[in-house]
Automatic annotation (TrEMBL), chain A:
UniProt source species: Pedobacter polaris
Lineage: Bacteria, Pseudomonadati, Bacteroidota, Sphingobacteriia, Sphingobacteriales
Protein name: Uncharacterized protein
From TrEMBL, chain B:
Name of the protein described by the UniProt record: Glutathionylspermidine synthase family protein
Keyword Metal-binding attached: yes
One MF term in the entry's GO annotations: metal ion binding
Keyword ATP-binding part of the UniProt annotation: yes
InterPro entries reported in the protein's UniProt record: GSPS_pre-ATP-grasp-like_dom (IPR005494), PreATP-grasp_dom_sf (IPR016185)
Keyword tags: ATP-binding, Ligase, Magnesium, Metal-binding, Nucleotide-binding
Length: 111, 376
């Protein structure tokens, strides 16, 4: 019950609030979007409405992929859980040692 | 405890959105400041004392379950037991938990403990506090959640493995992301090096046998807003035991015991007639009026309330496969058809504040509203 004298937030900003766009904004007349995360891979169609509902989440869903080697970061490509495996990996063998998608089948945990 | 109706702030939507609270309304209102609850200082102290005492009792109950090997009652698979026991023996730290109470006629009764993945933290710690600054800044609130989170992350910093502390949740839920990012915000303020990775982006390095993030950086410490019963059942579940790099998972896996409603009969067995506990059993026992709850469930799903031989309320859902417990029926107080549930937060080892969720029924489900409070 101690009253807070001062509260500051360094990370959470209105950017999070701006993410609360209704899903229909993405779904209505959804254009056909074909994506690949690796230039050696084939394109496949992506469905935004399949779960990624906000700009911020979409940003985080499609992230650079790379590896640190002797302290130097080498970007190998991009990886996204939102597109098919064949469009992520292609013939880029740098990704073969890592498996992804083994967690996260559940929905929100709100309790 | 009084329920008081008021006029919401004119600009309440933009006021809460400026705080980063983006899920204040969905198809039904979630944040509701057309009403608040007023507690006396005595009532708040009652909640604070009960929270501290129950936390101590819960820790003793974990030790009891481990000593007696009662894992089958919790539906905890045998293969994870050595890993779970190690997490307990090595004191893997917990950051938070939320006790859900019914408070009526001076009696405060524990309904359940959300020990693994509690949410509504941001609403309780930040949104309702800023509401109070606008509504009546001279009043007080049972709320030191923010300060305690920063302070406790500061303490935990010394227990972390060398390297970053990753934060993980699913992609599709703004509510989960907000809770996760809020916790990360507090960790940053405690000067911890952090990084966000969505739970489904976590990778497993087959050659080196540890978890990595999207840049292949090894995950050495991770806060995950994702329940263990799901983690264990998914493809990477068994990798938790294959990883020999002692990755620190927060919440720790021993919280599987406390987040399971099977802990309620155990608590009653260890502390019978404790004033904050309700009778609870793995069968109906001598109960006439009771709540039948799945040992694993979320958002009030698959709960049935029985009173005088008839079904008072029942919710549907996908839970119950792992079994049920039976708890003496203690109905939430009725304020003209509004039924408030008090969520009391423990941060580290200390009670830190409350959040009130209100439903139009006795079972608090995913359509409940978060309502602010003050001490009057």
């Amino acid at each position: 019950m101690k009253k807070s004298k001062y509260i500051s937030l360094v990370l959470i900003t209105a950017a999070l609030a701006s993410c609360d766009k209704k899903e229909k904004e993405w779904n209505e007349d959804e254009p056909k979007v074909y994506m690949r995360s690796d230039s050696t891979a084939n394109y496949s169609r992506s469905h935004h409405g399949a779960g990624i509902g906000t700009a911020l989440l979409w940003y985080y869903a499609f992230r650079p992929y790379g590896r640190y080697n002797n302290g130097v970061y080498n970007r190998a490509g991009y990886y996204s859980g939102g597109i098919s495996e064949r469009s992520n990996i292609g013939s880029n063998t740098g990704k073969y040692g890592i498996i992804r998608g083994g967690f996260g089948k559940g929905a929100t945990v709100s309790s | 405890m009084e329920r008081i109706k008021i006029e919401p702030r004119n600009n309440w939507q933009s006021a809460v959105e400026k705080l980063g609270f983006g899920f204040h309304s969905t198809d039904v209102p979630y944040w509701d400041e057309s009403v608040y609850y007023k507690f006396s200082l005595t009532e708040i102290e009652q909640i604070e004392i009960a929270t501290a005492e129950l936390w101590e009792m819960c820790l003793s109950a974990v030790q009891y379950v481990i000593d007696k090997k009662l894992y089958a009652k919790f539906h905890i698979p045998e293969w994870i037991v050595p890993y779970l026991e190690k997490s307990w023996d090595d004191d893997y730290p917990s950051i938070y938990g939320r006790f859900d109470f019914a408070f009526k006629d001076g009696q405060l009764k524990l309904l359940e403990f959300n020990a693994d993945t509690p949410t509504s933290l941001y609403e309780a710690g930040i949104v309702q506090w800023f509401w109070l600054q606008d509504f009546d800044k001279n009043k007080d609130q049972f709320n030191s959640i923010h300060e305690k989170l920063i302070a406790y992350w500061g303490e935990l910093k010394h227990y972390l493995n060398h390297g970053k502390l990753h934060f993980a949740c699913i992609k599709e839920s703004l509510e989960d992301l907000t809770t996760t990012e809020y916790l990360r915000d507090c960790a940053i303020q405690a000067k911890i090096d952090t990084k966000l990775v969505f739970i489904d982006d976590i990778g497993w390095d087959n050659a080196r046998e540890f978890f990595v993030d999207l840049e292949d950086e090894q995950i050495r410490n991770i806060f995950k807003l994702y329940p263990y019963e799901w983690l264990l059942n998914e493809d990477f579940g068994k990798n938790l035991t294959v990883d020999h790099t002692n990755t620190l998972w927060i919440e720790p896996i021993w919280k599987m015991i406390l987040s399971n409603k099977a802990i309620l009969p155990i608590l009653w067995e260890l502390y019978p007639y404790h004033p904050n506990l309700l009778k609870a059993y793995f069968d109906k026992g001598d109960l006439i009026n009771y709540a039948k709850k799945p040992i694993l469930s979320r958002e009030g799903a698959n709960i049935e309330l029985q009173k005088e031989g008839r079904s008072l309320e029942k919710t549907s859902g996908e839970y119950g496969e792992e079994g049920f417990i039976y708890q003496d029926l203690f109905e939430l107080p009725n304020f003209n058809g509004n039924y408030p549930l008090i969520g009391s937060w423990i941060i580290g080892q200390t009670p830190a504040g409350i959040g009130v969720r209100e439903a139009n029924r006795l079972i608090t489900d995913n359509k409940s509203r978060f309502v602010p409070h003050l001490i009057g």
